[in-house]
Write a sequence for this structure.
């Protein structure tokens, strides 16, 4: 019952957003605007608020990073290899599709799904490991995908990486992580009106993120490529967190909250960045778009199962 009270209201918020968009009560512009607010204001405020608090003295073990990104690498290679075996080596579009399918199977929906759910499960103990992982997740994953795709295409890898770096430098979440990191290292805490304002924005992050996700999902459809979408969803919701859990809990020694956050972070559904990457390179769009919807629907059961399992172990 406790698990149901934790998970169901969150998915109800997503469903409410989807339902209001599907019935035409809310337009797509509302979802786009709310998503921009979450990405540019609410989540950055929550990050700064969290990182500006005094540290607990916990040292982040290198195993924390190895556990998460090791799991990413394994499932990425598995899914890319599975798709690659059915393709012609000389077909560059197929080569790009294999990379993007692997990327989708290991790219979590972090801002709109991971942040509210992980904070609800782990509370204050999960804030620092969550935002530390959030700080490096997108840069590492996007850089890896760009390198693999551009190398296969014979394109200008340096130019493409520079473009990624420029985009990250303007990313509100990356900027918030830098600001919060500086405040944490210099032991500066927020106070007065600034603290009140940052908290006011940060407190809206979870609900707005889930609601905007629901509104935005209305534009995605379960289209062609359902077989590949199902494989991506299994990789994302089952295999990715499984590999992370094995490494975090059975290979390295780290605080339980860190191991749990890494596992639950990996258990999130396919991130929308995967679909944007597919659109950018015009490869795997149908499969990834379907995987975004399918994995989000199925995740209501898989996330609940992972939370239950983490509570047992």
């Amino acid at each position: 019952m406790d698990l149901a009270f934790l998970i169901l209201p969150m998915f109800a918020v997503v469903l409410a957003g989807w339902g209001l968009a599907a019935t035409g009560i809310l337009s797509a512009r509302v979802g786009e605007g709310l998503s921009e607010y979450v990405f540019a204001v609410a989540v950055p405020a929550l990050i700064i608020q969290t990182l500006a608090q005094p540290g607990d003295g916990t040292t982040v073990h290198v195993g924390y990073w190895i556990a998460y990104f090791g799991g990413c690498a394994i499932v990425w290679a598995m899914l890319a290899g599975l798709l690659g075996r059915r393709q012609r080596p000389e077909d560059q579009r197929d080569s790009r599709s294999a990379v993007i399918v692997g990327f989708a199977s290991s790219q979590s929906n972090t801002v709109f799904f991971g942040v509210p759910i992980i904070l609800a499960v782990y509370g204050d103990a999960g804030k620092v490991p969550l935002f530390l992982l959030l700080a490096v997740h997108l840069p590492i994953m996007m850089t890896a995908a760009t390198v693999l795709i551009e190398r296969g295409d014979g394109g200008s890898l340096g130019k493409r990486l520079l473009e990624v770096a420029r985009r990250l430098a303007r990313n509100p979440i990356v900027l918030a992580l830098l600001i919060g990191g500086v405040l944490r290292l210099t032991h500066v805490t927020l106070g007065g009106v600034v603290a009140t304002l940052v908290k006011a924005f940060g407190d809206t992050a979870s609900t707005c993120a889930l609601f905007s996700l629901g509104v935005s999902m209305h534009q995605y459809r379960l289209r062609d490529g359902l077989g590949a979408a199902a494989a991506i969803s299994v990789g994302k919701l089952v295999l990715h967190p499984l590999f992370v859990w094995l490494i975090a809990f059975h290979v390295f020694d780290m605080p339980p909250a860190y191991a749990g956050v890494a596992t639950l972070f990996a258990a999130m559904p396919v991130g929308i960045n995967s679909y944007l990457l597919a659109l950018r390179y015009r490869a795997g769009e149908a499969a990834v778009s379907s995987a975004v919807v399918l994995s989000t629907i199925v995740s209501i059961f898989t996330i609940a199962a992972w939370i239950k399992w983490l509570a047992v172990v």
Summary: Residues 60-192+223-311 form one domain.
